[in-house]
Amino acid sequence: MTTQKDYVEMNIGKLALAIFTGIFLLIILFGSFYTVNAGERAVLLTWGNPSMDAVSEGLHWKWPIAQSAKIMNVKTVKLEENADSASKDLQDVQVAVAINYHISPELSPRLYQEVGMAYEDTVIRPAIQDAVKATTALFNAENQLAKRAEIRAAVKENLRERLEPFHIIVDDVSITNFQFSAQFDAAIESKQVAEQDAQKAQNELIKVKLEAEQRIAFSQAEAEALRLQKNEITPELLQLRQIDVEKIKWENWNGALPTTMISGDSGVLPLFNIPTTASA
Length: 280
Hints:
Layout: H1 4-30, E1 33-36, E2 40-46, E3 49-50, E4 58-61, E5 67-73, E6 77-86, E7 92-103, H2 108-114, H3 119-136, H4 141-144, H5 148-163, E8 168-180, H6 182-232, H7 235-251, E9 260-262, E10 268-270
Antiparallel strand pairs: 1-4, 2-3, 2-5, 6-7, 7-8, 9-10
Helix pairs in contact: 3-5
């Protein structure tokens, strides 16, 4: 005979079974679908074995428990890395690199199968280090700032060759900074100061030389003018100038007679006092 207690226990058991069944069905239901957003691809795993067909955007169905989906980002991603390297002249240099890359959408399952989800740390960062070291070793430290564009292009090509086998496409590479040792920076600064001082001295020397050349040219021009003037002096010209001088003296005479005269042998002779007016 079933008692009330047994009836209650049976109902509780049925309710618990119903709840468990409902939860299990919900898990099965929600576990049977997955969503791939824009800029993503899904790698469908069946008991851990990846399918080589990348799943595109949208809502998709899968077998619950037996299958799972790994979502991979195929949009362009920016990754920054500092690479320690050495220049051709064995100077330590740290290069800050920014790389834009994306995963090949169609080959994303192969990347997952060959590398996994941690491909940045496993593949990309080591490739950046190696590419920068291989490139900076071709240039002297002093030339690297001036040849930034050439170094950037070389690093990009090196990275492209290293990452393409892993189905990672390099879109662009930027060299954001070169950092040299404190000793090298001090040496470069000293060299620049010395070059500036040398240029200043050179400019002053050019200025002095130019001024000297100008003085010489002026003297030569003055001498040439005097020579031409001397060549143009004739007895007739001297006579005319003498007449002009006498005329000026006559116009400026005050009526007083001279008291001395100059003899032909350049002696100075006194003259008798000749009154200028008649005595009374």
